[in-house]
Amino acid sequence: MHAGFAGVVQHEWPRPRGWTAPELLDALSVTTLPGVGATLAKRLRALGIETVRDLLAHRPRRYERAVDEIAISQLWGDDEVAIAGEVVDVRARRLGGRRSIVTARVRDESGTIGASWFNQPWLAERLTPGTHLRLRGRLGRYGFDVKSYDVGAARATADFAPVYPASEQVPSTRLRELARAALAQHGRYLPDTLPAELELPLRCDALAAIHFPETEAAAEEARRRLALDELLTLQLLVARSRDDDSIAAALPEPGELVARYRELLPFKLTEYQERAIAEIDVDLARTVPMQRLLQGDVGSGKTVVALYALLRAVENGRQGALMAPTETLAEQHFLTVEPLCAGLGVRCVLLTGSAGSKAVREAIASGDAQIVVGTHALIQRDVAFHDLAVGVVDEQHRFGVEQRQALAEGRSPHVLHMTATPIPRTLALTIYGDLAVSEIAKPPANRKPIVTAWVGAERSSDAYARLRIHLDAGRQAYVVCPLIEQSETRLARAAEAEAERLRRAELKGYRVGLLHGKLKTADRREVMRQFKQGELDVLVATTVIEVGVDVANATIMIVQEADRFGLAQLHQLRGRVGRGGEQSYCLLISRDKLELTDVAQSRLQALCDTTDGFELAEVDLELRGEGQLLGTRQSGWSDLRFTKLRADRDLIERARQLAQELRDEAGPWQDEADRMLGDADHRGLA
Ligand code: ADP
Ligand code: MG
Questions:
Q1: Which end of the chain has the least Cβ crowding within 10 Å, N or C?
Q2: Helices and strands counted in the chain (H then E)
C-alpha cells in the first residue's frame, strides 16, 4: 500500500465498506483543483477530462523507470539520464512551418550544455536565467534532448513515475501534479461499490497506487482492482438490459420483396454478406428479439445487409428503422437507401433533428412510412412507430447504452447493431455480453487494397502532385484537414482557411468543395450531392467524412498532419477511398519524423503495412489501450479505463458471475451502474 499522501490512504478512522459518498466527483469540475483555470480546463477537456473523477480515471499509460542523475560533464552515450542545473540563457527559434525549437544553456558545477525542446515555444518565457531545472533525456542532435523536466523545486522527472496519455499542451508532468492534488483533496470521497465480503483493497487506495505506485507490481494490482469495478458495472448493465420476457414478431421465410431487392443490386452478394443474411434470417424467425452485432470494416458492405433486414420487416407489413449517430451519417444512409427503396416501391423517410416535419411523424405513426432513416430523433418521445419490427443501429458504440435500450423498450423489435470499428471477435463477445456476432471479414472481391504511403511534411508537394494526376484522369479526391483543438467552430474555421489556401495553391484550377461539421444541413447536403455527381473534384473536409461518405470515383486521399489522428480514425478515414474497382491511394502527411513520438510513428507505419482492420485493432490495443479501441470517449461502453481486455479475461468472467448474483440486489453497485447510464445519457450524443 502506498503511504505517500496524508489523508489519502492513511485512514485513521474505521470506515464501513460499501459506504456511499455524495455523488460529488461527477459534479466536481477540475477547476476546483488548485491552479486549474479556464484555459487549462479547456485543454484538459480535449483529453476527455472534465471532472475530478475523469482525472482520477485518467490512467497512466506506463511508468517511467527511475534514472540516475549525473553531472553534465559526465554526459556520454545515449542512455537516458537526468541532469540538474540552472538556466544561463535561452533562445527560441522557428524551424520552418509550425515547428520551433527552444534551446536553453544549462549549467551545473561540472559544465554547461544546451538543452532543447521542440514545439513548445511558450517555454522560452518560463526559463528565465537562474531558474533551477531538472531534466530527463539523452544526448541528441541538438545537445541534450529533453524528454521531461521539472522547473524549480519539483522532483518528479527522474524518479519512478507515471506517464499519462498527454497532449502537447498538457504534458504528463502537469497531469501528475493534478492527479496528486486530486487525490489529496478528494481521494477519500471515492465510494467503494463492491460488496465488502469480497475483501478487496479499497478503491481509494487502488487509485493512489495506480497514480503513484512504488513498484510496477503494485500498480498492476491496483489496476486490476479498478478494472474489476468497472467490469462489474458494465456487466451489470448487460445483465439488466436482458429482458427475458420481451417478445418480438417472428417473421416467416424471406419473400418476394427481398428477392426483388437482390435482383435490383448491381452486384452479387459476397459469401460473408450471404452468411450474415442467413444468420439474420434465423434470428428473425424467432420470437426472441434479435440482438446481433454486424461487424465489418468500412466498405465491407454492411449497409446492403442492413437494408435486407429492414426489407424483411416491410415485406411482412411492418416497419424498419435505421438509426445513425450523426445527421450527416443519417443523410448519407438515406441517400443510399432511398433510391433502392424507390426502385422497390417501398416508402422511405428521413427523420433527424433538422429534417422531418410533422407529416413525417404522422407517416411513421400511421405506418405509411415503411422504412425510417434517422438520428436519435427516432427514439424521442414524440415519435411513435406504427409497428416497428426491425431496428438497425449504425455505429452503435457511439450511442450510450440508454439509447440502445430505448429503441428496444416497449417495442421489442429485432435489433441489428452495425459497427465498423473492428473489434476482435472474442473481445466483442465478452464486452457485448449477449450479443450474437456476424462478421463481414472481407470486402467485395473487386476491391484492390488501398496503397498507403507515409510522407514527411517536407515532401507534401509531391503528394499533391500525385493527387493532381488522379484529378486529371477524371478521378476525385479527399483532403483531410489537421485535427486541431476539439471545438467544432475552430475546426470549421481552420478547414475553411485551408480550402481557401488550397484553391489558390496546390489545387488551383480544380473545383474544390468544403465539408465540415458547422455547415448548415442544406449546404452540407448540397456539397455532398455535388461531389457525388462529379461537380467537384476535391472535397476538403474535417473528420466528418469519417463514416458514411461513399463515392466510388474518389481514388486518392491526403491526410494532413496525420500523426495527430488516432489509428482507428485514420483507418476509418482511409476507408472513404478504395470503394470502387480502381486502385486507390492514401497519403499520410506527417509532421517532421524527428518530432513524432514512437507511438505516432508506429501508428503511421502500421497503416502503411496493412489495410486489415482487425490487425490494426490489435496494434491499436497494444499502442493505446482499451478505451480508445471501443470508439470515441463519448460512449458508455468506452468507459473502460482500467481494463486490459486481453490480459483481464479472468476478471471479465468474474465480473459476469458477480453481476448475475448482484443484479437484483440493492447496493452501491447499482448506483454505479446508474451513474454510467447517466453518463452515457449526458455525453452519449455529443
Ligand atoms: P459499409 O456500410 O460496410 O461501409 P457499404 O455497404 O456502404 O459498406 O458498401 C460499400 C460499397 O460497396 C458500396 O458502394 C456498395 O454498393 C458496395 N458493395 C456492397 N456489397 C457489394 C458486393 N457484394 N459487391 C460489390 N460491391 C458491393
Ligand atoms: Mg456504410
A1: C
A2: 23, 20
Nearest alpha-carbon partner for 563 in 594, 538, 609: 594
Q: Rounded CA gap, 591 and 460, in Å? A: 10
pLDDT at site 430: 56
- DSSP assignments along 394-413, one per residue: ETGGGS-HHHHHHHHTTT--
Separation of CA 580 and ligand 1 centre (Å): 9
DSSP class of 348: E
Please give the backbone phi and psi of residue 53, each rounded to the nearest 5 degrees, phi first: -65, -45
DSSP one-letter string for 157-196: TTSSEEE----SSS-HHHHHHHHHHHHHHHGGG----S-G
Give the residue among 459, 338, 431 at the shortest CA–CA distance from 656: 431
DSSP 366: H
Say yes or no: CB of residue 444 within 6 Å of ligand 1. yes
For residues 327-356, b (16+ Cβ closer than 10 Å) or e, as one string?
Answer: bbbbbbbbbbbbebbeebebbbbbbbeebb
Residue 269's pLDDT band (boundaries 50, 70, 90)? very high
Q: In whole angstroms, how far apart are CA 16 and each of 181, 201, 496, 530?
A: 25, 13, 58, 65
Protein residue whose Cα sits closest to atom 5 of ligand 1: 301
Predicted model pTM: 0.59
Cα–Cα distance measured from residue 556 to residue 573, given in angstroms and rounded to the nearest whole number: 11
Strand partners, 400: none
Ligand 1 pocket residue status of 267, Cβ below 6 Å = yes
